[in-house]
Amino acid sequence: MFAAAAILAALAGSALATNGTSGADLNNLFKRISSGCSTSGAASCHGSSSGSCCFEAPGGLLLQTQFWDTSPSTGPSNSWTIHGLWPDNCDGTFTENCDPSRDYTDIAGLLTAQGASDTLSFMQEFWVDINGANEKFWEHEWSTHGTCYSTLETSCLPSGSPKGAEAVAFFQQVVKLFKTLPTYDFLSAAGITPSTSKTFTLATLTAALKAATGVTPALNCDSGAINEIEWYFNVKGSLLDGVFVPIDAPSKGSCASSGLKYPPKTGGTTTTTSGGSTPTGGSGGLPSTGTIHASTTGGLLTGGTWSTQTLATYHFSGTTSSFTMTTSKGNCGVSGGTLTCGSGVSATTFSAVSSGGSLLLASSGSTAFSSDATPSGSTQETVFTGSSHSKSYTLSIVSS
């Protein structure tokens, strides 16, 4: 397994030089903010359920998520790209958008003003939005996920820290961690490279990744092609400067056991590091892919059920006034007032309504959906159109 020391060495050492940032430069970049926390105590999810400036909770199950986008291709052709770093709760549930007062804008300006221009340059190549809206994407990742870290509360920062310093530290740490996880290189070292004709088994892919890192990540697929990887961690100390402890993924992801495609990117440059593809959120035109979030908690899984587990990727075809949607399980449709997605489902035409900065899913012109109960943990609830059931909510489409 990755030793904690190996992670630290990778974060600060010579591996970063291959990405254009020396260990010395990175140390200079980070010496501005120190948590003062020990890293010798318990890792997150292995101690108190209460968060503090030195113990990450309740979101102590960290996912460093990367994408491999090929339609359209984003990032270098020999690298996956950054999606984000998400603080899931230790039971697999999660919270989002934890502090709207810190929904910072102009992330590029914030990074530049606080001496993190090297981080910004890296993000502009490896943390890019599939539709080119990088700034919106970065703002979304910070406001949705970054504001939920207990160790990044403004009260945890050193006295005199500039406004937004915790967001700058968040982006720096995500970039540092990503640089230790060159997924493309891990697979390539085992003879697994993108191909228009070859297919792979899930066991072959995960064995290669475990051989390189000592842990097994989760792989997600879209139409039989791998397009997402989730590397899991706990953290000792603060996210500002703590030790990331790699762990096995708690679930295997959505990929089938065999026949998996790893298609090549087109039109991209090559690089000496790793990367993949990305998402964003908000209102506007209909995205080609995205997740569907409930207004109260959680969102939709691949079968169209409501859950607080990791959300499924949905594919949208059409315009906001009339579109169909699918998941890896098949078409999505409404029958008898119930939303489902699957191989035998007849596709229903949906629409989307812009409201309060969100793009709301609508069925037969109504944005109201309801269920018999609110999901928690591994439970899933059936989604009904209208508000006749006890738990009512709206569903927003977030581009990915």
UniProtKB/TrEMBL annotation:
Q: Where in the cell is it found?
A: Cytoplasm; Vacuole lumen
- Which portions of the sequence form the region Disordered? 253-289
One GO term of the cellular component aspect?
A: extracellular region
Biased composition (Low complexity) is annotated at 263-277
Q: Check the record and name the Gene3D superfamilies matching this protein.
A: Ribonuclease T2-like
Q: Which residues form the RNase T2-like C-terminal domain?
A: 293-396
Q: Which CDD domains match?
A: RNase_T2_euk (cd01061)
Bias class Gly residues marks the residues at 278-287
Where this protein primarily resides, as one coarse class?
cytoplasm
Keywords per UniProt:
Cytoplasm, Disulfide bond, Glycoprotein, Hydrolase, Lyase, Nuclease, Signal, Vacuole
Q: What class of enzyme is it?
A: lyase
**Signal peptide start and end residues:** 1-17
InterPro entries named among the record's database cross-references: Ribonuclease_T2_eukaryotic, RNase_T2-like, RNase_T2-like_sf, RNase_T2_His_AS_1, RNase_T2_His_AS_2, RNaseT2L_C
Output one GO MF annotation.
RNA binding
One biological-process term from Gene Ontology?
RNA catabolic process
Q: Which residues form the active site?
A: H83, E141, H145
Under which EC number(s) is this enzyme classified?
4.6.1.19
Protein role: Rnase which modulates cell survival under stress conditions. Released from the vacuole to the cytoplasm during stress to promote tRNA and rRNA cleavage and to activate separately a downstream pathway that promotes cell death. Involved in cell size, vacuolar morphology and growth at high temperatures and high salt concentration.
Q: Which PANTHER family match?
A: RIBONUCLEASE T2
Name the protein family. Belongs to the RNase T2 family.
Tell me what this protein is called: Ribonuclease T2-like
Species assigned in the record: Trametes pubescens
